[in-house]
Amino acid sequence: MQKLPHKVLTYAEHASDIIATAADLIGREHPFALITSLAIEGGAAREVGSLALVVASGEMHGYLSNGCIDRDIHIHAMAALESGDKRLISYGNGSRFADLKLPCGGALDVLINPTPDVSAILAANADFAARRPATLQFAVEGRSTAFTYMPRFRLCLAGRGAIFRSVAQAGSAAGFDICLLSPDTTDLAAVEQLASQPPVHLVSLQQADGMEMLDKYAAFLTLFHDHDWEPGLLQAALTTDAVFIGSLGSRRTHDMRRDTLRERGVPETELSRLRGPIGLVPSLRNASFIATSALAEIVAALPKEIQHSSA
């Protein structure tokens, strides 16, 4: 068996990560094979349509299993890069590779393409940059399959203090595109490296900068203990297409928050979108646990097409 270089696998999760890496490799004229799961039967670690790539120099970005077959996929991809030919590999039930088992059962078909459509990859990268879904087609053995990928889900946080920092760190670790707003420059400086764009320094209670970042692939959280900062931000957020809007605090605080927004003229149809107190587990006192609880509620509330959009 071919010996693999040490540490060749980067566990990139989202399709946009793979496409961005592919676009960079195209720009530098570095050959790579694009890898796609075309069909899944039974259990699997990833969704059908999940992407990975192997660079001619040996690195692999992305994964198709939870470690049981990715090394073998890497070997086939390196061979495909040498031959220039596509390969359709089947694993699991009915596979000719009887020594490679899928512990979760079922079967997985993987397409390895050493000459992927460059223009389609660059178009998909542009779609992701513009926060649009991207569609890619994969043709093999006379049939064509298309998969549509959602942009990376965005998490916009307005707040200050330990919980603000913890949610930013946990959200980044979970793969969210992070946006930050805070009146505290120290807090912004502590986590600004996690953000995909320059953080917004809030200097006025009426300031509502940053709401243009909220689209139908985004969530917005206010994480203040001094709740005076919230009304203007929430009023602006509730006019956007954000799929989740929530706030930190007690039940009593949330009732007062809603009353304040009513006084500002926010209609009940918009108020009904505001969630609070956020978090699946009530009355937590640990910032890291609060962050985990809040992120779990967001993921649970997302439409399935967004929950599965890492493919």
Short description:
The chain has 311 residues and is α/β, with parallel strands linked by helices.
Kindly list the characteristics that best describe this protein.
alpha/beta; Rossmann fold; 10 helices; six-stranded mixed β-sheet; six-stranded parallel β-sheet; about 300 residues; 2 domains
Helices and strands in order, then pairings?
Layout: E1 9-10, H1 15-27, E2 32-41, E3 51-55, E4 60-62, H2 70-83, E5 87-92, E6 107-113, H3 118-129, E7 134-140, E8 143-149, E9 154-159, H4 161-173, E10 177-182, H5 185-191, E11 200-201, E12 218-223, H6 230-237, E13 244-247, H7 251-263, H8 268-271, E14 274-275, H9 287-301, H10 304-307
Parallel strand pairs: 1-4, 9-10, 9-12, 10-11, 12-13, 13-14
Antiparallel strand pairs: 2-3, 2-6, 3-4, 5-6, 7-8
Helix pairs in contact: 1-3, 4-5, 4-9
Folded structure, characterized:
The chain is of the alpha/beta class. It has two domains: 9-149, no CATH class; 154-306, NAD(P)-binding Rossmann-like Domain (Rossmann fold), CATH 3.40.50.720. Helices cover 33% and strands 23% of the residues. It contains ten helices and 14 strands. The strands form three sheets. Strands 1-4-3-2-6-5 form a six-stranded mixed beta sheet, sandwiched between helices.
